[in-house]
Amino acid sequence: MGQILRWWIAGLVVAATFAVTTWAGGAYVLPLVMKSSSDRWVIAAGVGVAIAALAGLWGQSWATRESSPASAPPSKPSDATGNRTISAHGNIIGIASTGDNTTNTQHK
Question: pTM for this one?
């Protein structure tokens, strides 16, 4: 699925979330608590905006996520050999450990 289509779907989900939340709150939930119709719809719209903002956060993360790992190139097997040897593809920035809790042995 393309990223543009994901953004469209995310936008539709946000709009639908706002509409359904506002309608349900203003028509069914808040009449049980409030008598004033105008106040009821203002509060329902505020709750709808808050819930739609949460849906927007989800939509942004969903629309911008990377493609599935199945399309990633296969990794080659490790070619590291020897005692206390580690292998990494790319640069190691920071500390790399074998996990055997021995002291640091730096070669000069």
Answer: 0.60
